[in-house]
Amino acid sequence: MEDVVVDEGGIRLGQFLKLAGLAESGADAKGLLSAGLVSVNDQGESRRGRQLERGDVVRCAGRAVRVA
């Protein structure tokens, strides 16, 4: 599992997908979410604006990335 460091205030899921290299653009992130290909803490997620906190684990395309 990879760790991706974010600012203390947290980050929105759509932004995190781009930062972690799971999506190339906001439109790509939106497509992944609407197709049901993203989960947060092992629960399916479709909201691009979901606020992530340290310790959350995002899974997409066979990769697991933790917010650090």
From TrEMBL:
<protein>
    <submittedName>
        <fullName>RNA-binding S4 domain-containing protein</fullName>
    </submittedName>
</protein>
<dbReference type="Pfam" id="PF13275">
    <property type="entry name" value="S4_2"/>
</dbReference>
<keyword id="KW-0694">RNA-binding</keyword>
<dbReference type="InterPro" id="IPR036986">
    <property type="entry name" value="S4_RNA-bd_sf"/>
</dbReference>
